[in-house]
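C-alpha cells as discussed.
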C-alpha cells in the first residue's frame, strides 16, 4: 500500500521526464545531433518530412514543435542524427501558394515557387473556367503562370479548331502556352527549356497527366501514373502530399496531387479583376469607381466585351468567379 502511494525520487524523475517529453515533443528526438546544415523540404507528412541536403541526398526528419507550417519547397536548417534528422528552423519564403481550409482558415501548399505550370487536357473534359480560376489564383499569388495543353494526341479532327482557338486566346492574353503530348513526346523539348533552372509546380485537375509529365521529363522519378486521387468518387485519399523532384541541373518541379484549386474563396470580390490581365486595363475607365463590371451603366469592361476587345469566354469566367465568391 505505502509502496504504491510513494514513488521513489528516481521514479518521480522518470515520470516528470516522460511527461515533459510528451508535452514538448510528440516523438523521441535523437540526442546525437550533428551541426546545423541547410536543406530543402521534399515532402511533408504529419510530424515528419523528407528533406534533401546540399548534395541532394534525401533524409527523413522530425519537425520541432512550434516550427509553423512546413511544406514542399521550404528552405530549412536541420541537424543530422544517427537515424533521423531534426528540422530546426524554416527560412522566410519568397512565395507561397495557399488554399482555404474547411474552417475558414488558410493552409499553405508549397513554398518558394518561381512559376506555376497549369496543366489542362482534352480529357478529362477541358474547362476554360477551371483554367481561368487557376490563372486568377496564380496572378493574385504573384507567381507567373504558364499553361500546358497535354494529351494533344487525343484531340479529334472536330476538336482541332476549338483547341487551336483556345491556345491562341491565351497566347494573345500574354501567357506562354505549351501544347504537348506525353504519349508522343510532342512539344516536350520546348517545355523542358522552360523548366531549366526554375522552381516550378504543376497544378491541374486529377488525370490531366501531371505525374506522366514528371516521368517524361525525369524518367528516374518513377511516379505512379493514373493513381486515384482525392477527388475520386470513392473518396480514396491516395497521395495528397506535394512532392519535389530535382532537375538534372539547377531547379526542381513539385507535383501536387492535392492541389485541385487554390487561393480563391478567401479573396475579396474587388480583387478578382486583378487576376484578369485582359480585363484589368479597362476597369480603370468605368464610370463608377466601385463598378463591379456586372451590369453597371458606363462599365468600360462590358463595353470592351461588346466591341470584341475582350473574349466573351473570359468575361463569363470573371462573372462565374465573382458569383462563386459571393456564395462562399
Ligand atoms: N493519350 C494520352 N494519355 C496521357 C498523356 N499523358 C498522360 N496520359 C494518361 O492520363 C492518365 C492520367 O495521368 P496522370 O499522370 O496520372 O495524371 P495526374 O492525375 O494529373 O497526375 C494516365 O492514364 C496517363 O497514361 C498523353 O499525353 N496522351
Ligand atoms: Mg498524379
Ligand atoms: Zn466596370
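Sequence:
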Amino acid at each position: 500500500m505505502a509502496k504504491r502511494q510513494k514513488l521513489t525520487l528516481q521514479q518521480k524523475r522518470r515520470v516528470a521526464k516522460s511527461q515533459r517529453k510528451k508535452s514538448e515533443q510528440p516523438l523521441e528526438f535523437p540526442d546525437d545531433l550533428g551541426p546545423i546544415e541547410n536543406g530543402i523540404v521534399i515532402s511533408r507528412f504529419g510530424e515528419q518530412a523528407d528533406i534533401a541536403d546540399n548534395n541532394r541526398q534525401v533524409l527523413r526528419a522530425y519537425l520541432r514543435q512550434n516550427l509553423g507550417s512546413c511544406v514542399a519547397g521550404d528552405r530549412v536548417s536541420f541537424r543530422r542524427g544517427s537515424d533521423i534528422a531534426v528540422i530546426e528552423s524554416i527560412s522566410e519564403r519568397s512565395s507561397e501558394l495557399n488554399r482555404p481550409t474547411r474552417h475558414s482558415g488558410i493552409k499553405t501548399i508549397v513554398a518558394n515557387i518561381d512559376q506555376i505550370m497549369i496543366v489542362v487536357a482534352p480529357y478529362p473534359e477541358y474547362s476554360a473556367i477551371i483554367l481561368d480560376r487557376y490563372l486568377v489564383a496564380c496572378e493574385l499569388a504573384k507567381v507567373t503562370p504558364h499553361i500546358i495543353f497535354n494529351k494533344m494526341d487525343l484531340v479529334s479532327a472536330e476538336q482541332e479548331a476549338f483547341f487551336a482557338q483556345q491556345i491562341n486566346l491565351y497566347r494573345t492574353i500574354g501567357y506562354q502556352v505549351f501544347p504537348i503530348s506525353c504519349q508522343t513526346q510532342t512539344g516536350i523539348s520546348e517545355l523542358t527549356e522552360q523548366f531549366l533552372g526554375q522552381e516550378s509546380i504543376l497544378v491541374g485537375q486529377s488525370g490531366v497527366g501531371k505525374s506522366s509529365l514528371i516521368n517524361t521529363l525525369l524518367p528516374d522519378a518513377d511516379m505512379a501514373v493514373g493513381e486515384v486521387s482525392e477527388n475520386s468518387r470513392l473518396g480514396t485519399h491516395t497521395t495528397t502530399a506535394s512532392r519535389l523532384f530535382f532537375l538534372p541541373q539547377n531547379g526542381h518541379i513539385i507535383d501536387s496531387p492535392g492541389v485541385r484549386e487554390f487561393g480563391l474563396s478567401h479573396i475579396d470580390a474587388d480583387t478578382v479583376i486583378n487576376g484578369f490581365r485582359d480585363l484589368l486595363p479597362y476597369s480603370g475607365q468605368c464610370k463608377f469607381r466601385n463598378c463591379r463590371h456586372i451590369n453597371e451603366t458606363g462599365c468600360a469592361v462590358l463595353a470592351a466585351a461588346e466591341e470584341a476587345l475582350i473574349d466573351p469566354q473570359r468575361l463569363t469566367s470573371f462573372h462565374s468567379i465573382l458569383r462563386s465568391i459571393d456564395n462562399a
